[in-house]
Every structure is written in structure tokens, then in C-alpha cells.
Amino acid sequence: MNATFFDGKVSRPHPAQYTLSAYTIEIRYTDADGQERVAEWPLQEARLATWNPSGKTRLQFGPFPHQYLDVETADYEARFIPARQLLKSARPGLYEFVLSKGFRGVVLVGVVAVAFLWLLYAYGIPALSLQVARQVPAEQEVALGDMLYRQLENSGGLSVDKTKTAQVERFWREMGVKTRLPIRVAVVESKEVNAFAVPGGHVVVFTGILKKFNRPEQLAALLAHEAAHVEKRHSLQQLIRSIAAYSIISVMFGDVSGITAVLVDNADNLVSLSYSRQHEAEADAFAVEQLARQGIDPMGAVWLMEALPTEGEVIPTLLRSHPHNAERVAATRALAQKARTRVIPNAELQALWQKIRENSVR
Amino acid sequence: MESYALRNRLRFVGTGSDLFGIYLLNMLLSMVTLGLYYPWAKAAVLRYTYANTQLDNSPFQFHGTGKEIFVGFLKAVAVIVVVYTAAIALTFASSLGLKVLGFVIIYAFVLALVPIAVHGALRYRMSRSSWRGIHFGYRGDRNELIKMYVLQGLLTVVTFGIYSFWMTQNINRYTIGHIRFGSARMHYTGDGADYFWLCLKGYFLTILTLGIYGFWWGRDLFAYFVDNLAIENEGKTYQFQSSLTVGSYAGLVIGNILLIVLTLGLGAAWATARTLQIILDNTLLDERLDTGSLVQTELEYRDATGEDLADMMDIGLI
């Protein structure tokens, strides 16, 4: 049969004739000097090249430098049926398979990709980040948190009010809640109704949220809630989660250099970290439990939620991640009632609250 | 002077939908393997684009395998990890002097990595590329390239970046001039001064015309590269030439932006295919070059470290 042979020595195409036998292929061609030549290759040393020139099927022989035989695809399909089993990669590869299915192949791969992505996002990453967060030693967590907090401060995002910070810090200490890591509170001048926790113990409270409170229990509940995110490593997990998600996106788009830049711009995300429903429920429960233990009315956790706007105004981060607010308030109320606390009046706490309130209304 | 014609002898016959299928499969497999599939993904894209790029109706072929690139990938990751570990360790260093010294050393090391990566990537990529069985090769000297980067890099800093125009052209001349295509060799004759004026003119006219001149500038930059490219075979030099018009360049750029933006990035495969088609359709080559007379000259070379190092450092190569 007619074919074109490339001898691996020169780029000139040689018109050739080939004969197939059970285990070998014999190629007869005329070389550049007009000499008749024969090349014989065992089929086991032949490979099928992928993505062939149109209408041709390309066979590749031997080690570097390879020799090639371009045969008509129609001939290949008719004559190479027994030979195919001996040819390496004679089975179509995954790419060739998908492309040969055309539109359906692409849709199939797309569906599998989306399903996998969803599984990873909904189950894989949270489970992984929990495991990783548990392995991080306390000192590292504090060091990381401090670094991120400083980065936030330096980027000009936070203007800390020293007086209010000192007052709220004292309020927190007076509450007497014991935590794994020391909690460091910062009050930031901002209209935003928001508060967030940084891994390692920083809790940032915006003055906007303080203005919404009219009872000390609300502030106590807020601080306990944010402290819970630190205590239970939620913010650390969330950070790990966003790094993991970012890495996956980088991988998806083949942007390898992006992965290395992950940590750099992660600090800004802290402000808008949103927790899962489960994390919020855990933090609410922690707040109720700690308030009750310290003789502060745990209903503060409910009053806190009621004081925050849920419609019209911007939904604060504290509530954002939770679509079922009514449900969450009800659950917290139930917890608070079950706690059946004997409320112990605390004059010091009350006095501090008065100061904070005077300061924030002014 | 002998008269000759320039003909369009290169073309890209691949399609956006094939590329889309490959990208999608790559994405899925990369996710499933947490990114470890990357080298195989890259090899697949290169195999496809090479196989669908033709010179005188014969396809090119990429011989690199995912496994080779994976080994290179591991080495490159090791290098990057060492650099990052050193940098992170230094942030905890107590003395300021130590910190400064450490960062200067790391910085110098990373700068030296650029020519090492470029050299490695060229050696690997060229040796794994062939056409009608004739392999390409890169015969540049690594130390020479490092010297060029260091000295001219310093000159660039001293001249507040102005020398960078000369530097890029000098490096192009060196790297392209050391590419072998069997017995033929490539040539690049671009020159810093010409390139500088081209960019200076393009920059100011683009600003003055509120960006419209950008299409002319883009066309000129492409033409500058291609028109300075030549191939030497059996003692004769054969010129490449651009036939890209402002219209087709503008169509390419605007079309690609629309393709990518309107599809939220899903159209990237089609944009790539269009770009390759238009670039190759507008690259003409002296018709007298006898592509049947190339002789095999290059040795086999398998180290793929440079390939991935270059990727991680965002150095674009072909």
C-alpha cells in the first residue's frame, strides 16, 4: 500500500510502499540518493501518534530519532485490525475519547467537573480545614493572627479608638470568660454595623454596632460570640478554607504562580469572612453558655440579634451567613431559657457599660 | 538582488471546541488530583497545538510527556519551597542586618533563576519539538545567558528601565539565534534602538489618540518581531515577514475580549485558537526555503525543570 515515510535523518518525505505481516511492517522507499531501501519494524516497537494530520494515520517507530509512516486513515482502518493489538496506545487516550464524542463528551466532562467541585466545596474543604486548623499550635495561630491583624491595620482599613478599646477590653475581662487564647479587643471607628474575629485572639468591634445596643448583655453576648469563633478555631478554619478554595481556582485555571501569592492578599478577606451555619450555631451556643456561667442574663444573645437590622439596611456579617434568622433567634432563645441562670448583678460591669454607652452615643 | 516571493506556509488547523474539550478535561483532572495533574495537562495542550500547527502541510510534533514535565515540576516546586521557607524564616529573624542581607541574597537568587529557567525551558521545549522527524534544539550557553541577564539587568536598573528595550532585543537575538531546526538555524535581528523608538512612538500616539493608535502599535510590534526573524539553511538566509493588517489585529483583540468577557472566561479556548490562526496566517516565509532539505542534527534531551520553573515565575514562552 502507498504511504509516506520519514526516515528520521532528513525532512524529505519519501513515497513508500508497505507490507504488513503478523508481527512486522516492511517499508520500501527510495532515499535522497535514489537508492532503494527497506526498513522493517516489529509492530511492538511502533506507536500511534495522536492528533494526526487530516486523513492520515501516523505510525512512529523506534527510539529517538523516530521514523514515521503516514498511511491513509481509510487503509489503516481496513488493514491494521489484527495489528492494532500490538501497537502501543492503539486504544484511544482519554483526550481522544472525549473529543471523539464531540459535544456530548464535553458536556459529560463539564457535569462531572461541576459535581466534583460542589462535593469538594460542600464537604471536602470544610472537613480538611477543620483537621488542619486542629494541627496548628497555639503560638503559630497567635503569630499568624498578629501578622494578619497588623496587615489589616497597616492597609489603613482600621482606625482604632484607644479610649473605647480600653473600655471594651476591660468590660470583656470583667465578664470573666475563660478562653484558650487571650482575647484582645479593638474598637474601630466606623458606621458599619459589624464585628469580626481574627485567628489568634483579635476581636474587632465597629462603633456602628455599639450604637445599636441598649443593654450590657448585648455587648457581652457579642464579645462572647466573637470570642467563640477564636476559641473554636472557626476563623482559622475559615482562613484555611478560603486559601484552599483559592488554590483550587488557581489550579483550575492553570495559574500556578497564583498559588504562591495566596497568603499575601488574604488579610482583607477577614472583614468579610462568612461562617457556616454550623459555626454560627456553635458560637451562639458558646455565648449563651458563657453568659449563663458568669451570671449574666443569657437572653443577651437574643437581644443582640434583635438589635441588629435584618432588612433594608446592610445585613451585618454577624448575621449574613445565616439565611434563617428567625430560626436562629428561636434556637438561641430556647437555649437561653433552658440555661435558667441566676443573674448576679455586677456593678463594675454596669458602670463600664454606662461609660461605653455615653462614649458611643456622643 | 534575486527576486522572490513570500508565501504563507504556516497555519493552525486546530479548533476552539477541541481545545475547550482539552481545557475542560484538564480542569477536571487537575481538581481531582489537587493540582498534581498540571504537567500532564500542559503536555496535552502542547501535543494538540503542535499537532495542529503545520508547515508546508506537515504537522509539528511535541514529544514531551507528562511524566518528564512532572519530574521537572517537582524540582521546580522544591526550588520555590526553599526560597519561600528562607523568606519566611527571615521574617522571624531578630537582627535587622541579617534580615536585609538575607533578603538581598534571596532576591539575587530569584533573579538568577530567571535566566536558568529560560535556558532550561528552551533546551527542553526545543529538543522535544519536531517536524517531519527533524528535531529542534537550543544551543545557547547557560552562563552566557546569566551574564546577560545580570549585567543588562543592572544597566536597566541604573537607566530607570530605559535599557530594558535593548535588553529584551539582545536576549531575543541570543536565544533565538541559538535555536537549531535540524541543520537550519534561526536568526533574530531586532535592535534595541529601533525597538525603543517603536515603543516610544506607539506609547505617545496611543495616549494622544485615546487608545485608538494601540491597534497600529500592536500590529507594528508583531511585525517588528516577525520581520526580524529569519532561518538560515545551507548558507542562505530566508526571511519571515508579517502580513498582519490593523483591521485583522483589531478584530482579533476586540473579538477575543468579547469572547472571553461575554462567556465569563469559557470562551478562552476559542480565543486561543483564533489567535494562533491569525498569527500563523499572517506569518509569511520566503518561498525559496526548501523544507525538504533539513537534516537531523540534534541530540535528545529530557530534563524538564526549566519548563515548570519558567511557568511558576510567569515567564511566557511561546
Automatic annotation (TrEMBL), chain B:
Pfam families to which the protein is assigned, alphabetical: DUF898
Residues spanning the membrane: 20-40, 69-93, 100-122, 146-166, 195-216, 249-271
Keyword Transmembrane among record annotations: yes
Keyword annotations from UniProtKB, A to Z: Membrane, Transmembrane, Transmembrane helix
UniProt name for this protein: DUF898 family protein
Record organism: Rudanella paleaurantiibacter
